[in-house]
Design goal:
The complex is a heterodimer of chains A (864) and B (183).
Chain A: H1 2-16, H2 24-30, H3 41-56, H4 63-74, H5 82-95, H6 106-114, H7 118-131, H8 134-148, H9 153-166, H10 171-175, H11 178-185, H12 190-203, H13 208-221, H14 226-242, H15 249-258, H16 264-277, H17 281-295, H18 300-316, H19 318-322, H20 325-331, H21 337-350, H22 356-366, H23 372-388, H24 393-405, H25 410-426, H26 431-443, H27 448-461, H28 469-481, H29 484-500, H30 505-515, H31 521-536, H32 539-547, H33 554-567, H34 604-612, E1 626-627, E2 631-632, E3 640-648, E4 652-661, E5 666-676, E6 682-687, E7 689-692, E8 698-705, E9 715-727, E10 741-746, E11 750-752, E12 758-762, H35 767-773, E13 779-786, H36 791-802, E14 809-810, E15 815-823, E16 828-837, E17 842-849, H37 853-863
Antiparallel strand pairs in A: 1-3, 2-3, 3-4, 4-8, 5-7, 5-9, 6-8, 9-10, 9-11, 12-15, 13-17, 14-15, 15-16, 16-17
Chain B: E1 18-25, E2 30-35, H1 44-58, E3 65-68, E4 71-78, E5 81-88, H2 93-110, H3 117-122, H4 124-134, E6 135-136, E7 139-140, H5 145-152, H6 166-182
Antiparallel strand pairs in B: 1-2, 1-5, 3-4, 4-5, 6-7
Helix pairs in contact in B: 2-4, 2-5, 4-5
Classes of the chains: A alpha+beta (864), B alpha+beta (183).
Amino acid sequence: MSVFKRDKKEEEDSGGNPYLNLDKTSVLQEARYFNQSPVNPRKCSLILTKILYLLNQGEVFTTQEATEAFFATTKLFQSKDVMLRRMVYLCIKELSTLAQDVIIVTSSLTKDMTGKESLYRAAAIRALCSITDSTMLQAIERYMKQAIVDNNPAVSSAALVSALHLSSTAPELVRRWANEAQEAVLSDNAMVSYHALGVIAGSRKNDKLSTVKLVTRLAKASLKSPYSLCLLIRLTAQLVEEDDSDASQPYIEFIECCLRHKSEMVIYEAAHAIVNLRKNARDLAPAVSVLQLFCGSSKASLRLAGARTLARLTAKNPTAVSACAVDLENLISDPNRSVATLAVTTLLATGAESSVDRLMKQISSFVSEISDEFKIVVVKAIRRLCTKFPRKHQSLAAFLAGMLRDEGGLEYKAAIADAIIALVEENPDAKETGLAHLCEFIEDCEHTALAVRILHLLGQEGPKSRQPSRYIRFIYNRVILESGPVRAAAVSAVAQFGAQRPELLPNIKVLLSRCQMDDEDEVRDRAVFYSIILDSGDPQLINDYIINVSQPNPVLLEKALRDHLEINPDVLFDINSVPTEEEPKENKEPIVEMEVRKPVQMSLEEIYAEQLAVIPGIEKLGPVFKTNLPVELTEAETEYRVRLIKHIYARHVILQFECINTLDDQVLEDVHIRLECPPEYEVKSEVHCQKLVYDKPGSVFLVVEFPCAFLGSLGSFGATLEFTVHDCDPTTGNPDPGEGYADIYPLEEFDIGCSDQIRARGAAEDFEQTWERSSNAPQASDTFVLPQNEANEAAQAVCEHLGLPKAAISGEAVKEIRGGGVFRGGAPVLVRARLVSRGDGTTMQLAARSPREDIAQLILAAVG
Amino acid sequence: MHIKPMDGALFEPTLYIIKGMCILDNDGNRILAKYYDKEILPTTKEQKAFEKNLFNKTHRANAEIIMLDGLTCVYKSNVDLFFYVMGNSHENELILLSVLNALYESVSILLRRNVEKRVLLDNLDAVMLAFDEICDGGVILDSDPTSIVGRAALRTEDVPLGEQTVAQVLQSAKEQLKWSLLK
């Protein structure tokens, strides 16, 4: 009976779907039919559809299978059936990435793209461009140019879109088609004009001046296509963002004008741009009222667009948004949960403390129905509420804890944990409750990474609480129950308690000794390590290896270790020479965000490491100590743009001059720098930039040795760019025949200061102890009178000189700067200063301590 | 390399707007799907998992738009078919909606307004061509249903009855009977 039932079901299924249960081998067999002549187009089309269907379902074709299918397909060029030919093109495109020797069909496709049948031409162009490479492109270049300006919009669009795809691999070639594309922008056909605009904008991405020209010209041309207008608004908005002056007024006017367009798409695009560009309420008003209208629309997408953009605006201008409160209130029971969530979170962000409870209740009614993305939005909103209304922390924490118990992915859980962690860190009243919630959560947390983070936090915060012992039970439970990484983290957390609470030390020692029997190496190693450190009873040792452990950037550490092993494995490796992990910059923007994909954050050192590899002998300099932020050495709108990146090593500095040639009719050769150094600096080697073509950055590197004495390292440099100019054809980029001529270009002066050579950070909580501990280190101190009237202003200037973050400043009337860092070479340094305003200036008393006295003096010299 | 400051506030001025399009049946199985960004859902396995998830979140509530896994998805359904267009989470939703409408409307014309799975499968080749005419590698190629259909519905006339095999005739008669009973 059951067999019968299943058969019946299968029959029903396959009756509805002829493509169900297709077998790859038999379909490929069927494809042999293509070799017959003449063929039945309908039958062939069905076979091709089957192949495409299999590919689309994710069936894997081996190279051989794909190649066979591909070659069988090419036989069908014999047939004159239009539909079949189109399916052939589609197959060629799909198989082109899998099969070999696909260029064999080039001539057939070229014939079709230049033929009479217009239904073939557009599709043939797209198929051809998907199989071709840049070397073959030149052969069809003439046809492509013709196709771009063809009367048939489909052909023109196909050529333009293909050109856009090709511009990622052959940008110079496609740039040569710009004239044709310019012509096509003004086409009557909406899509052709859109595609042409995209090609032009793409080819001039880095050339601001021509973007300005393009935008100015087209803003007046009143484009018809809504898509084109959207793209134009985006380009215009980018220009306004880069240049905030009055010069951008006409652009703003153009965007505002688009608010009155008849297409909703364009209206929204304009409103979105204005919300992101303008600041004061009056300028925002027209855009906000448009968004308000959207919120009342019958289309969910429009409501979402409206609510989402208003939500973003809360960060910048909460008052402008609170004017829309009524419209948002209407959305909190919206059938589209995304819209409802946005409305509630926005109201939470702009509303008063009294409405919090009501809105929270509203959210909890549907929180289980919304996707993780929006749950994260809710969590973030609640996190901001915690900061805004600290008194509400109890109910907010309880709500978060409730969410933590629900089902959800790692990202969602991590967001909640983040929110609770932030609550614990910001609000001392909430610390105990927050930690208790987290303890409960790790009792059954399936995400290892999250459990490890929470254990780390418990290790940090637990010892400082009133009853530290209660956390130890939770942590130690992990040692018994969890996987290796979690157990290891728990051991580290337990050790923190031992290090910071002497009364618990005996018990902790017992726990650690038990962990020494663990199966996992890492857990055992940690337990042994911490036991020995704790047994030593040396406060300095305990502080440096348990409480305040410095964390080197792992990528750079790996590189430094590798270089070290290659060059001088006999010498001891100094871990202080590796840059420490940057504290992730706190993202304070309180916007209701939905982007989940964030670019991977890389430190400057990591970004440039690859470029520096071209310098011969670079590994001899040791690990890079610090890479400084780029400094512009030219004005913004000049022929050649040069910026300087200073890479600091223990005894050398590498000056990287990153040059951009903004003239499309010139090619620069043998670009190098003439440097005027302060005394005692010595240029060791130089890497020229052999060729600098239009709009492609190239770098000149100079390896310069610091003076022996640290005190001599402050100074100014003069630099001149020297090169040979060859004129060239702006469209092809080919240089004109004949010798070039030498030319020079003066650059602005630049300095190497104290801040370049120090990796500084603001004072940690235990600055006082650290300062006391270093009392026997050499100290340099002096009193200065600074020109600034405001003590705060003066303090900021001093911080900038020393490379300290603004966070190092504290105090009200008497400003105090406390901070420290590591000087190149690895010597630590501590700085403390007091500043008092004197009406006509600020008096500052500055003291610096370092094991190297000359570094302490250098700090004073840098300020003086 | 010049590093541009990361600022996600404004929309990116690019033509590469569509991240994916798909048509699912009423069990959430893929009938046709295309993804255009190599960095987003690169493998079929990830794509199908995403589609399942998307379907679960959308098949009950006809709410038109949803944010999922960092993508903005607009959707529309009819009988036993679900149409989706996906874009970046930071993208003009209305542009995506216009593409969805183009997709739905073109398919609807191609299927002579019988937007249901069986009819769609009978015309799968034309629908594939329509997909290809709407979006090329993430760029909107056309959004006007009439011109899309003009370039995708190329079948001249149906094969005369005489050329069909007996089995084919029987099969189609059987199906028509079954569907008329089901309705």
